[in-house]
Amino acid sequence: MRRIVHVDMDAFYASVEQRDAPSLRGRPVAVGGSPDGRGVVAAASYEARAFGVRSAMPCARARRLCPDLVFVRPDFEKYSAVSRQIHGVFREVTDLVEPLALDEAFLDVSVNKRGEPLAGRVAQYVKARIREVTGLAASAGVGPNKLVAKLASAHDKPDGLCIVPPDRVLAFLAPLPVDRMWGVGPVTAARLEAAGLNTVADLRAQTPAALSLLVGRWGETLWRQAHGDDDRPVVTYREPRSRGAETTLERDTRALEILGPLIVEQASEVADALTRNARRARTITLKIRFSDFVTRTRARSLSEPVGEAAVLASVGEALLREVLDSDPRDVRLIGLQASQLVDPSTDRQLAFDFP
Q1: Looking at domain 174-226, does it have CATH number 1.10.150.20?
Q2: Range with the lowest mean pLDDT among 167-176, 302-311, 320-329?
Q3: What kind of fold does domain 4-10+77-169 have according to CATH?
Q4: First to last CA, the chain
Q5: What is the tens place of the pLDDT at every residue in 123-156?
Q6: Which residues are catalytic?
């Protein structure tokens, strides 16, 4: 049986800023854009979360919830440097590390460099070393698989450590709300709750067929999750599924002379990413979020994979014109994405196995 540790830094961006600016410690902090513009919160300190401030929330709303909120512009170069330190700590104990984000990863410590048979002690070591190296707190969850470890890491934040041995998995999962299960978003959760299924124990009491009637093919996987069944290994490397860029506008607009140049900039950024990763794309997708927050996408699949900025921009602009011609609403956000990536040396589409 595997022994998996999931490590998740606590309010990562905000914690880094509080570490580096003592005047911010103990105060509600939001890393993100300006509350006077169109920015959104990238991260909120726990002091800010007490007021209901959350990531992805418009900064203007965050300030209304917490008038004393301190806004800090993000410094992603700094966060990336700290992330490298954190991931260096992970590799002190195992090479089986699956990064999920700058501040989050799965570690398979079934066999580890410390020769420690107890995964909980490995997690304690990782937490202590992260604090020693970075001055930051991390939460960790330990379990027999990725599902349980990830749920456990969120169980006792901040600076928590939750260990779920195999014989406690079912008891640990039973009281959790259904929206804690992977793949259960707001729509699926509402559908399950409308059927009287509010907890993981409720899911477990159903049959796979009954759950499939409610949520389609996902029903069997959801039933297995409710029983703590997750056989996915820790994957140390994943090919990117896509490359993209997006921009939130300072003011809503549908002016082509404003939106068009943004597409050109994004196409250049995406092309650079494709070049760095030696990839080309078969599908180009335009993402539009309107002033009423409704989001739409338009995609075009090409007969040959592409990677040149000019081609990406041309397809993106054509899709943009189609949107503007068919919808009168102003645009709040615009983005361009390249997907169905291929290796040009083999012209082989990349295969993925994502949760």
Answers
A1: yes
A2: 302-311
A3: Alpha-Beta Plaits (3.30.70)
A4: 20
A5: 999 999 999 999 999 999 999 999 999 999 999 8
A6: 104
